[in-house]
Amino acid sequence: MKTYKNFIIRLFAMFMGLNMMILGHLPALVYGGGELEIPSSFNPVGSGARALGMGGAFIAVADDATAASWNPGGLTQLKNPECSVVGAFYHRGEDLTFGTNPEADGSHSISDSNINYLSASYPFEAFNHNMIVSLSYQHLYDFNREWGFPLKHYADLSPPGSGIPSMPITMDDDWEYQSSGSLSAIGLSYGIRIIPELSVGFTLNFWDDDLTPNNWEEKYRRIRSGTINGAPYTETEEYTKNEKHSLDGFNFNLGMLWRINYKWTLGAVFKSPFKADVEHRFQENSESDIRDEELEMPMSYGIGIVYNISDNFSVSGDVYKTEWSDCVYKNADGEEISPITGGSASAVDPTHQIRIGGEYRFINKEKEYLIPVRAGIFYDPAPAEGSPDDFYGIAVGMGFTKNDWFSLDIAYQYRVGNDVGEYLMRKTNLQFSQDVDEHMLYLSLIWYKF
Q: By three-state DSSP, how is residue 16 classified?
């Protein structure tokens, strides 16, 4: 009887100890429940190689076919019908650090390309006012990421003072994590020049997974091996978990452009908050489910200014704020959390972007072309628990414009953040952080009078 009792005690201790060890070290990403990890910049910005080459300081510039994505109030600056296409390529590197498990440290990277923007704009005059309408597609966020790392665990399943002989355990967990998908919008824009110096406009954005890609998928896989009390242990069934979300919603942008005088132009934009319906398909090992959930995206707003030093040279600056404490995910059980951190939304501070850029234009009036050269710097923080994670970047670009025919622009951006991303594994004690460096290349082509 005593031997049987000791066996039961050992079995119970092993079960409780093993499960507490597992739960104490699972990456927070595996918990699910509405986390919305966006590896790219969180902040809503516009598109186009010209804007990117100026560090994204484009709210008060907004004078080409990509204006609908930055400030629809600037669309009335277009004199001719225009259509545009923007291609983007990026390479993102992430150096992961696990303070408690250095064996998991390592570098990971991913590369991808996409059609970042498409648009067609048509200016016209009605009731003695210049007006314009535009139809656009914009790729805003990407979820692409691939990680793979080992985690080692050591424990003794014999409770202190229990009288049970020592039962050491070692476990090697090989984790694989893959995320993919994107969020994009179809935009319908309208702009009107109220007086010669002042224009306003709006864009209606449709986020619909049936129209454009608005979904993201996460896949998790773990294979465990090790020893228990010196005996080899291999999990006969690996752990797998797949989650797929698809999103449908609607919001709008309001923009204003005020040409104060020849030297100064002021721009402002407001992007409304919105509530999106989310279909959450969940599969964990052999269990699966479909859940109807909600995602509330926050409002954001910015102001920009342009100073024309001469006909050839201008500088611009933007300040942009996003209210991330209003970003809330409501799961099928009615629980409301921050989709950024998995915790309380009120604990996430707003982010403030600061962008400064310039453009110098080499103009050949006789041959009717110009060659612009651009550069910019920016502060582009990412929301996190408490204060934002700091990201900084630089950008350069150039182009070629043939008057009344086409513009071809190219831009390169480098964005970096060190010791960031602690919130990704906030539910663990792994002391996680990462260093991120991102390279982006944009190529834009705009046709006039199509």
A: helix
